[in-house]
Design brief:
By secondary structure, the chain is mostly helical. It contains 16 helices and eight strands.
Length: about 325
């Protein structure tokens, strides 16, 4: 069994943060702070690098992607994250913000159930008892803005089989058997039911899963009635359902099946069952792309955190402490 929610890989695909980090390194090399506290209190480079180091530690968890998705599948947490993108809030201030939206929580519940999970996965941070969205959290909430119903469409506290399946179907429809190879087989039916109920996947409207195929037998060796010939000519080597034949010929299904039996008897036509397939709806495609972008943001951030760690180790091994870490 494979999963799309795989551990974060170290790749060369640092499309967003790598260039920023290069420019930050140049600033550090040319910076001459008067005191170490100047780095800590005023330097944005120091803050960005330290945020990336903390994120790198959190993302080293092999289950990080799954934990991140489960944290995000909560409307209250997303409201808090969105609020802290625009400013810093104490717990009591966040409590008041949520009350405006009709949500009443004690400060203890607000911190334990909503704020702490955001802090654990690195979406938010804290300083002087005030909370704010990290740069990573800001990128994530901006991406989720492409699908406002994110927290409503996916079940919380799960192994994220729904997310795995949605992303796998971006490349095309999947049969039940193919889905069993992607996620835990015993959960397939339940997962598909959830996704169908949410309007994220669907199956073809036709229930004709038995298709008729033209054989390689030479038709000139047989004689045809007019009706038989008309049906035979429409059957293709790629296959066609009886329903489609009825639509194309204008014959009743009873007539179509009668002449197909005759063609099968002459070995001019054979049948094959085609398994039912599942594919994304427009809404499902949109959500799948949001999930895919979330994983890209995580991978990009993790790679950048590793770059910072390596630069720091190189500097330390050469007896140099970068200004941003003084």
């Amino acid at each position: 069994m494979i999963t799309v929610l795989s551990p974060i890989r170290k790749t060369e695909n640092n499309r967003d943060l790598s260039e920023t980090l290069k420019s930050l390194e140049k600033k550090c090399q040319s910076c001459a702070p008067i005191t170490p506290l100047e780095c800590i209190n005023r330097c944005q480079v120091y803050k960005i690098k330290n945020e990336l180091l903390r994120l790198g530690e959190a993302m080293n968890n092999p289950d990080y992607i799954r934990e991140l998705f489960n944290v995000l599948k909560n409307g209250t947490r997303l409201r808090i994250l969105q609020a802290t993108v625009n400013g810093r809030y104490s717990v009591s201030q966040l409590q008041q913000e949520l009350k405006k939206a009709g949500h009443s929580h004690s400060q203890d519940t607000l911190f334990k159930e909503y704020l702490r999970p955001l802090l654990i996965v690195g979406l938010a941070s804290e300083t002087q008892d005030k909370y704010y969205a990290t740069r990573f959290g800001t990128r994530v909430i901006a991406n989720l803005g492409c699908f406002p119903q994110f927290a409503e469409k996916l079940p919380a506290h799960t192994e994220c089989y729904e997310e795995t399946l949605l992303q796998s179907m971006i490349s095309g429809s999947k049969t039940f058997k193919e889905i069993e190879a992607l996620i835990e087989p015993k959960t397939v039916s339940r997962t598909l039911k959830r996704l169908r109920s949410a309007g994220l996947i669907k199956t073809p409207k036709t229930r004709d899963y038995v298709f008729f195929f033209k054989s390689k037998r030479d038709p000139t060796k047989d004689t045809f009635t007019v009706t038989e010939r008309k049906i035979y000519d429409i059957v293709t080597f790629e296959g066609i359902s009886a329903g489609a034949l009825a639509d194309k010929t204008g014959f009743a299904m009873r007539i179509v099946y009668k002449y197909l039996r005759g063609l099968k008897g002459k070995k001019l036509v054979f049948t094959r069952k085609t398994p039912k397939t599942y594919h994304l709806t427009c809404k499902g495609t949109k959500l799948a792309l949001v999930l895919q972008e979330l994983e890209r943001i995580v991978e990009d951030t993790w790679n950048s955190s590793q770059q910072v760690t390596q630069n720091r180790e190189v500097a330390t091994n050469h007896g140099v402490v970068p200004n941003a870490f003084s």
